[in-house]
Structures are given as C-alpha cells and as structure tokens.
Amino acid sequence: xxxxxxxxxxxxxxxxxxxxxxxxxxxxxxxxxxxxxxxxxxxxxxxxxxxxxxxxxxxxxxxxxxxxxxxxxxxxxxxxxxxxxxxxxxxxxxxxxxxxxxxxxxxxxxxxxxxxxxxxxxxxxxxxxxxxxxxxxxxxxxxxxxxxxxxxxxxxxxxxxxxxxxxxxxxxxxxxxxxxxxxxxxxxxxxxxxxxxxxxxxxxxxxxxxxxxxxxxxxxxxxxxxxxxxxxxxxxxxxxxxxxxxxxxxxxxxxxxxxxxxxxxxxxxxxxxxxxxxxxxxxxxxxxxxxxxxxxxxxxxxxxxxxxxxxxxxxxxxxxxxxxxxxxxxxxxxxxxxxxxxxxxxxxxxxxxxxxxxxxxxxxxxxxxxxxxxxxxxxxxxxxxxxxxxxxxxxxxxxxxxxxxxxxxxxxxxxxxxxxxxxxxxxxxxxxxxxxxxxxxxxxxxxxxxxxxxxxxxxxxxxxxxxxxxxxxxxxxxxxxxxxxxxxxxxxxxxxxxxxxxxxxxxxxxxxxxxxxxxxxxxxxxxxxxx
Length: 531
Description:
The chain has helices spanning 6-22, 26-44, 47-71, 77-110, 128-144, 152-160, 162-165, 173-181, 191-222, 229-260, 278-284, 287-301, 308-326, 330-377, 386-389, 391-398, 424-442, 446-455, 469-483, 486-498, 501-518.
C-alpha cells in the first residue's frame, strides 16, 4: 500500500475518522491503532504480520526480564545479549542469509574448495531493518535504566505504527510511548503543517525523484556503456538528487500522516548537501539513523574515549556496519567504509589543528608567566613583556600573521573554524565526495560501479540523448528544493496553517490535480522500502 495511491488515501481517511472518534477513549484507541497498523503491514504480505507480533512479544518479554533483574540488583547483561542475538538473528536470516552463503561459497571457491551450501529463496519482510533498530533501542534503553517497560499493547503499537513502519524515521520508544500515554486533543491537531508536509513529500517523490529514476538514473546504472560521459555524469548527480527527494519525501509524508493522528516524529533531514564536511553531512542526512548509530554502536564501542587509534577504528566499524545495515552486499559495506575513511581524515585534520592550538596556547601561557616574573623582578623603567624576550617571543605572542586565531583568555582550544575560501568550496567538496560514493550504493556490484565510473572518461564528444532540458530542470529543481532554508519552509507551513479550512482544501485539491497530471502514470515504491 504505497502512499501516493487512491488505496492509501481511502485507507487513511477511514483511519483518520476512527482515530478522531476514539482518541478520547484510550482503551479503544490503542487497539484500533494496532489493528490498522497490522492491516497496513498485512496488505504487503499477511504472513509477516505474525513476525511483527512475535517480535513485539519476544522483545517485551526480554524488556520485562531485564527490568526485573535490575530491580533485584542483579546484572542484566546476559539478558540484553540474548535479546540482541535474537533480534540480529532474525534480521540476519531474512536479509543476510543469501549474502552470507554466496560470500562463503565464493571464498571457498577462490581457495579451490567446492562448497555445496543451500541457497534458499527468502522473502525480505518490509522494513525489517527499521523494525530491528526500533526494538533494539527499546531493550537497550530498558537495560540502561533510561526507560521503564511499557505495556505489551503500547509497545506493540510502537513497533507496528504504520506511518514509519516501512522506512522510518527511526523514532525511539522514549519519544513515542509518552504520546500514547498522553494523547493529544483531536481538536488540536496540527493539520496545516501536516498537509503541507504530505503535499510537499508527494511533489518531491512524483515530480522529481520518479522522473529522474525513469528518465536518467535507471538506464545509466543498468547499461552505462550505452551512454556518453556527460550522460553518465548527469546520471550520477541525478541519483544524488533522486535519493534525497525520494527518501526525504517518505519522511515528510510519514511525519505529516503522524501529525494528523496526533503523533510527532523526529525530523530526518536538514539540507544534507549543504554540509561543509562528511561529519556535518551525517548530522543532516537520515538524522535518526545517525543518532542510533552514535548512541547504540559508536559510543558503546568506546567512542573517542579510548585513544586516537581506537577512535578511528570505532568510526570505521560504525560506518561499515551502518553501510551493511542498508543492504546485503559488499558494495554497501564499501560505501560505509568510504564515509568512515572520510570521517577519519577529518578527525586527523581536526586533531592536528587542536594540537597546534594547544602548542600555541602553551607557548603564550609560558610567555605570559615569564613576563609576569620579569615584571616582579625588573628594576623600575626596564622593558618587560614580549619585547624583552626577543623577536621570537614577539612572533609567538602575535602569531604568524600578527593576530592568532587561538583565544588564550577564553575556553581552551578555541580556534577559527571558518572554512577557506568561504563556505561554498567545502560544501562543493563534500557534495562531490558524497555523490561519487553513492555510485557504490546504487550499483548492483563492484563491476557495475566501476563500469559507471570508468565511463566518465571515455566519451565526451557529444552530450547524448539523455541530457535533456527536462532532466536538467529536474536536477536543478531538486537541488533548489533541497537548499531552501528551513525557516522558509516554516513560514510556508505557518502561512498555509493560517488559511481557513476552505482555502486550504481548494489549494490542496488543485495541488493534487496538478500532481496527477504531471506525475508518473503508475506509483513506484520508495527507495528505502528494500532496506
């Protein structure tokens, strides 16, 4: 049941009416929300409804077991390890079994050994990666004492809530469960912002992402040899735009639909291609995943608390596993490693600047102490300060350009972080890196990725048929939508919300008619559904 379909519109209209009527009655409202979420999930494949319910039941049992051990003062580490093993085992079976078998068979074959391993055709449940991260965060938070176990009904609603079920955002139990316990007044829903987000998400998906996929990206990545170098370059850049517009569109629609049901979900995107570094990119791209990897993987591995080498290793492991979380293939792991290596390089550079700042700060502090000593011991009228210590000390005091970016009197290690020569060059460099890393994310394998990249250097004699004004306009439109500041979107939401319901309805009707005319003939699945 895809968002941009009549089927979902009818389904959600019924859900909205039922939610509005039952929200003041929590004993009926919560079972209703669970039932409609299971119906939504079962629409894809009813067999996996039982997997969803079993996951909720098993993880709730683990959470109760962990909480009981904590109340007795007993250790709960083994219980947590068992829960993590079960959840990752289920994920591994459905998502990584085939990848594991083919990888082992390939490795044994390279050693000259025959491997007759059973390769099963396993159907991947929708959104299982997101489901795994939600239930893991719940159990881990209970183990840490940051969260008390909820009722089985509340936890089941959290696990199955249909707006974010397939592709996020990855809402945590601590963010979602309080909204179940204290529902909003149905007369006080933020409908203006909700419809603004839903329409904006549909427009990004149907007018930009789907157009770029069918007219440029899919063909270039399927058969790069049939395209000129300019067409391949356009396809690579277009995929950066497509994946942003597609994934952020789903997040916007999910957040908007949730608002109409009385729930607030965390934001997931904040102009990621405006980032001036890869580290900043991950603070802006898929923000709920970045927070999850930081809090439940990077920090437990040791974060940056166990030395420089361990910090770099933790970054590489976190990003490699984050890449494999997206898909069962070595290209996903390599994509994650590319980002991990970029983060390590940025940390090395930052550590060097910090060491330099510390050295200069220590020199200036020593010089200040020396000047104070001279001031106490010098006879009246004698020269003191940097001039008394010689030209070298004066140079240290003033810095190489006469004004050091290090602040001695303020907090330690304060230095000028402004990029040179401005903000656009670091943004461009980060965008280029992220865009070419996407090639390995999108390609079916290493050979396909290298074929796409190799084609960039082979045929620049002509633009090619795929480089059309419409394709270029779609890329420019996607980037323009991306770079619009959040404050502008917020003003748009406020302005739309200020309109009376009739005006809002007329604008939405005209907008949906326009999407129907300009959009693709049939609906297409969101990219992150396969993850």
